[in-house]
């Protein structure tokens, strides 16, 4: 994968995460309690996975021994952590040299199994992983009859470059 495309994908992820966080923030804590709890659980999982992979990109052990928690942080905490993760990932990718992008990193997953991935593969996984879980959150928003944000790459790229609509 070309580094510039990876940077654009991470920019897209940050944009889509922001739209999802804002939509989840509109859920009524009483009438939308089930959907809000589910969305928070999904966001918690997303950020814990990202924090573990960030540690792996830095050749450190993962920060978390599980990909979710019994007690889920509040939305404000999850928002702060996911926003910080997106900023870190963008900065990391911007400084990633092509020769570094393809070096295998070995690590242990939370299930105890060993694995290896390149930084490029890890970043791609994080983008893809977020897309999957935002889709699940979108379904929870639908069930709560809340506004589901359009968060596809096509919407992102045309919002970023509206002149593309005129070609």
UniProtKB/TrEMBL annotation:
<protein>
    <submittedName>
        <fullName>DinB family protein</fullName>
    </submittedName>
</protein>
<dbReference type="Pfam" id="PF05163">
    <property type="entry name" value="DinB"/>
</dbReference>
<dbReference type="InterPro" id="IPR007837">
    <property type="entry name" value="DinB"/>
</dbReference>
<keyword id="KW-0479">Metal-binding</keyword>
<comment type="similarity">
    <text>Belongs to the DinB family.</text>
</comment>
<dbReference type="InterPro" id="IPR034660">
    <property type="entry name" value="DinB/YfiT-like"/>
</dbReference>
